[in-house]
Structures are given as C-alpha cells and as structure tokens.
Amino acid sequence: MSILVLGGAGYIGSHAVDQLITDNYDVVIVDNLKTGHRQAVHEKATFYEGDIRNKVFLQEVFRKEKIDGVIHFAASSLVGESMEIPLDYLNNNVYGTQILLEVMEEFGVKHIVFSSTAATYGEPEKVPLTEEMRTEPESTYGDSKLMMEKMMHWCDLAYGTRYVALRYFNVAGAKEDGSIGEDHNPESHLVPIILQVALGQREKLMIYGDDYPTEDGTCIRDYVHVVDLVKAHILALEYLKNGGESNIFNLGSNKGYSVKEMLEVAREVTGKAIPDEIVARRPGDPSTLIASSEKAKRVLGWEPEHTDMRDIIGAAWRWHSTHPNGYDDKNEK
Ligand code: UFG
Prior knowledge:
Elements: E1 2-6, H1 11-22, E2 26-31, E3 46-49, H2 55-64, E4 67-72, H3 79-84, H4 86-106, E5 111-117, H5 140-159, E6 162-168, E7 170-172, H6 190-198, E8 205-208, E9 220-221, E10 223-225, H7 226-241, E11 247-251, E12 257-258, H8 259-270, E13 276-279, H9 294-300, H10 309-322
Helix pairs in contact: 1-7, 2-4, 4-5, 6-8, 6-10, 8-10
The structure holds uridine-5'-diphosphate-4-deoxy-4-fluoro-alpha-D-galactose.
C-alpha cells in the first residue's frame, strides 16, 4: 500500500516525501513539474508526471497503484499572483481538488491530508490564531484553500472521506543536509530573498513597510521549519488511519518574528552585511500572524523542534549557499 503525494516535487512536498521514505512508507508522486523540480523527485518514489486536473491520467495512477492515503500539496500558492490571475488559481486549486476527490471516491480511497494556509483567516481579530476563529480570506489564494476545506467537508458527510487540513503559517528552512530546499521562480518569500541578497544575487532586501503597529514597525510572522512541518502530515495520516475524525490544525511555531528581526538573524548566521531599504507596504499584508498550534499538539502530538530562527535560517542557508541557482545549479545535474 502506498501514500500518494500530489505535488511531491515541490518545496514542501519533496520534504514530505523524504520523511515518508525515511519512515518506510511506499510513496507514489504525481507532479506536473510546473513549479516542482524533476531533481527534487526522490529516487525511491514512483513518479508520474502529470496534472491532477487530467482525470484520465489520475484514474490511471489510482488503477496502477494501491493507494492507501493521499497527501495533497499540488496547488498554486502565491497570494499576490492569485489576485492577478484568480481564475487560474480557482482552476488549479479548486477544480483540481474536485477531480482528485472524484477519483478518490471512485477508487474507495478515504483519507486525505492537505496543505491549507493561515491566509484562510484574513486579517486576524486577535493573535495567536486558533482554528475556530473567523475565516475571511483577503486573497483568491486564501479563499481557494478555504473552498478546498469545504469541499472535503461535504465529501466527508456524503461519502465518509476523512480529511485533515493543515493551515500553515510561514514555512522556511530546508532538509538539514542541504540536499533539497526552496526554489521558486520568481521568488517572493522573505527568507530566500534575504539569502539571495547575502549571496549577492540581489542588491538589497526591500522591507515592505515599517509603519505597522508592531514594536519595530515591520510585519510579524510565525516561521515554522519545513522539517517540523512535514512531520505533522505523517502524524495526521496516522491519526486518520487510527479512526480520527476530519479535522483542521494550525501549524506554526507559536512565536512571532518581525521582518527586521529575521534580517538580523540572517546577518548573524551568514556573516554577511545584507543591505536593506524600507519601501512601501505590500498590499494585503496583515501586520501580525501568529499561530496557536495547541490543537495540533493536543490531538496529533505534534510539536515543532526547530523554533530557534538560527536553526531555520541556518538550514535555508546551507541549501541556498550550496545551490545558488536552486535546482538549475550545474552540481545538481
Ligand atoms: N517581506 C518583505 N520583503 C520581501 C518579502 C517579504 O518585507 O522582499 C515581508 C512581507 O511583507 C511579510 C513578511 O516579509 O511581512 C513575510 O512575507 P512572505 O512573502 O515570506 O510570506 P507571507 O506572510 O506573505 O505569506 C505566507 C505564505 C503564503 C501564505 C501566507 C499566509 O508564503 O503562502 O503566509 O498569510 F498564504
């Protein structure tokens, strides 16, 4: 019996596959390689290149493989981009999930764990955020993930398809040995951008606003190490296998760091100056997002181990400094 990982060649998906294989699961990967990387596909996994919206293709995978459970990472995930091309986001994320749920139902696969996001909450009423708080997404991306959660809810009621939605906060870091990591093109996330400045690939870090109602005026986020994050997926699969009901969990480190604090840690870790400049706010950025991951701890027994930002940025630095061009780096081929 295998675990099907959709989006297993992407940043978080490839780390999840790595952990599943370390834990002796048989893994089947589906990825269309649009944002994923062929070099990130684990050599011990069975790989099918294709799009989850292609029902005939997906049925073929379920026919060939004995799928026990699904972990679904295959989605578009940039907040800003989702506001420019909302229909693409709805098509890939919502319609893609529709096809997946149809095929799961057809083949009697009843367990799914999938990536949701803190962006489902929108501007928080208060922090730390708990799962029962109001969800009013302010982006197509956040809303597409909320729609995915709701689709699964209705499938649970009708067909008994049980799901765990994992609402990620800010994911960063890389596998400790630096062999896999984050490689987006274009890059928009804070930690890789800071490290690209450290590598001399960008002139400076543009800090989007220092007039927020926070101590140093820059936005506060809750950064969680990708290696910790993926462990929650495996705990969630086991939870479903042991009869757990459908559920939603926040995944974060429960502590907030400002953009300026992250920059300071990166300067310390890399030993580089990393110039910066304060520029205008980026539209749609809430000032503070901090998770309460109490529920994940209580129900799944999940607790992040790497909550020191030096660990997270240090791991990301090992990846970026050895793969300055990401997976396109000649060393990788
Ligand atoms: N930032 C900068 N300069 C940059 C990049 C980012 O100042 O060049 C700031 C942002 O304004 C923000 C913080 O750094 O305050 C973190 O920004 P990221 O783009 O790294 O992450 P976001 O918090 O915007 O987004 C993350 C995930 C999304 C998810 C969202 C939930 O990447 O997928 O959290 O709110 F939807």
